[in-house]
Amino acid sequence: MKLNFPLLDEPLEFDKTLILALEEPEVFSNIAKVLYNYNVEGNLKLVFDDFSPVKESQLMLIPDVLSYNINTPSNLKLIYSDLEKLFSEKQDLKAKLEVLASEIANIISGECLENELNLEYDEITLLELIKAMGVKVETSCASIYEKCYEIVRIFQYLSKKKLLVFINVGSYLTEIQFEKLLEYVELSSVTALFLEPRKLYNFPQYILDNDYYLNRWRISEES
Question: What is the pTM of this model?
Answer without folding.
Answer: 0.83
